[in-house]
Specification:
This protein is of the alpha/beta class. Helix content is 39%, strand content 14%. The chain has two domains: 15-27 and 99-230, HAD superfamily/HAD-like (Rossmann fold, 3-Layer(aba) Sandwich), CATH 3.40.50; 29-95. The chain has ten helices and eight strands.
Length: 239
């Protein structure tokens, strides 16, 4: 923290940590985009799979059905009847059998699990439940979450709707005030703030601004065990 950062506010009652999945614990966004690009090419968008910048613009932060609807709007062609399974299968091919957690994640999860002031951890993601479990298992970090996995498909609400995070907190037995959300995407940060939960925005690139006022940006997962229980005042002092 810089010298200008206000002193942290300690939370002696403990903190429950709600993690996003992709971009926070594991990085499968390029594979997700590749799966959707495969379907886009079947619909007539030749070369989409080779244009990572366009794939990022079209697909990142959206649920899969939104992406398929967007591809239909762009091409004027309906997706194939099995578009979603095709995209997911191609994504899993690109990921392969082994998935590394993001740098510092394994260390941070181990340290958090050993802290008496951490009330527990869960994952709340826009992805389907089976996919969440599969990717955490591949990355060998599933055991840290004690079965507390929450999918937007189960509650019928996708980020930026705050309902997913509120449902996760309630199901785990914690008030929003006792929670911290760890997110990287704009939709996830918005969902956390609108749920009334403190938000730590992971951004490995230095100088990244918060997606929303009230989020605190951090740049390395090695800092996370300290930040979740000693929450710095965000820019503007709104929390």
């Amino acid at each position: 923290m810089s010298e200008s950062t206000p002193p942290p506010a300690h939370r002696p009652d403990g903190t429950f940590v709600i993690f996003d999945l992709d971009g926070v614990l594991v990085d499968t966004q390029d594979a997700e985009n590749g799966g959707l690009a495969h379907v886009g090419e079947l619909m007539g968008l030749t070369g989409l799979g080779d244009d990572q910048a366009r794939c990022h613009e079209l697909f990142t932060g959206k649920r899969m059905q939104e992406c398929l609807d967007l591809l239909e709007e762009i091409t004027g062609n309906p997706p194939p009847p099995n578009a979603m399974p095709l995209a997911r299968a191609r994504c899993e091919e690109l990921i392969g059998d082994h998935l590394e957690p993001l740098d510092g994640v394994a260390d941070a999860l181990t340290r958090l699990s050993e802290r008496p002031d951490v009330l527990g951890m869960c994952v709340a993601s826009n992805s389907p439940l089976e996919l969440i479990e599969n990717r955490l298992a591949k990355a060998k970090i599933l055991h840290h979450f004690d079965g507390l996995l929450f999918s937007a498909y189960e509650v019928g609400a996708w980020k930026p709707d705050p309902k997913l995070f509120l449902w996760a907190a309630e199901s785990a037995g914690h008030d929003p005030d006792a929670c911290v959300v760890v997110e990287d995407s704009a939709v996830g940060v918005a969902a956390g703030i609108d749920a009334g939960i403190r938000v730590l925005q992971y951004a490995p690139a230095p100088g990244t601004a918060p997606h929303r006022e009230g989020a605190v940006v951090f740049h390395t997962m090695h800092d996370l065990p300290h930040l979740v229980t000693t929450f710095p005042t965000p820019p503007g002092g709104t929390r």
